[in-house]
Structure formats: structure tokens, C-alpha cells
Design goal:
Layout: E1 5-7, E2 18-21, E3 27-30, E4 32-36, E5 42-44, E6 49-52
Antiparallel strand pairs: 1-4, 2-3, 3-6, 4-5
The structure holds FE2/S2 (inorganic) cluster (FES).
Residues 25-26, 53-55, 57-58, 64-68 line the site of FE2/S2 (inorganic) cluster.
């Protein structure tokens, strides 16, 4: 599972990273510059909003690739 995110250094003062879980889907992260995966590897964030996989079945870890829509436990 993906964990910590680091706020973007270029964001206006007072802004923070926002994390929004989607029911039965990814976690949306706004305002992050870097995402650290469970192994401690840094993944650069190049978009204003990114979707992090929470199901563990993505082929683009740590990013959600939509696989959760087709796989049910
Ligand atoms: S949450 Fe979308 S692929 Fe895992």
C-alpha cells in the first residue's frame, strides 16, 4: 500500500496536501510533489491530482490504472 505524500514546495503558503478516498477505488491526492511507496521509493507527482491504488492490482504501482473496476474480491 502506498503511504506518505510530501506537499509541493511550489504551493501557495498555507496550502496543504488533500487526500480523498474514493469508495471501492483509489485515493485522490491533491497538492503533493512526491509520493513514497511502501518500499520507501519516491514517485514524482507531475499532475495537480493523482490517484493512488488501494487495491494492490494496478500494473502502474503506485498509481491507479483502473483495474479495481474489473476485479472484485
Ligand atoms: S485502486 Fe485502481 S487499480 Fe487499484
Amino acid at each position: 500500500m502506498t503511504s506518505p505524500v510530501r506537499p509541493g514546495t511550489g504551493t501557495p503558503r498555507g496550502r496543504s496536501v488533500q487526500v480523498e478516498p474514493c469508495p471501492e477505488g483509489p485515493v485522490l491526492v491533491r497538492g503533493a510533489e512526491v509520493v513514497l511507496d511502501a518500499d520507501g521509493h519516491e514517485h514524482e507527482v507531475t499532475r495537480p491530482v493523482v490517484a493512488l491504488c488501494t487495491c494492490g492490482r494496478t500494473q502502474r504501482d503506485p498509481w491507479c490504472d483502473g483495474t479495481h473496476k474489473f476485479v472484485r474480491d
